[in-house]
Amino acid sequence: MGVVTAHVCAQNNNDENKAARQQKKAQRLERRIAEEALTAHMVDSLIMAKRFVLKANYLSNQRGQRVIVSSNINFIIVDSNEVVIQIASNNNMGGSNGLGGITATGKITHYNMKKLGKGDGYYSISFSTMTSVGSYDIVLNISRGANTDASISGITYGKLNYHGVIHPLEQSGVYKGRSI
Question: What CATH number does the domain located at 43-171 have?
Answer without folding.
Answer: 2.40.128.410
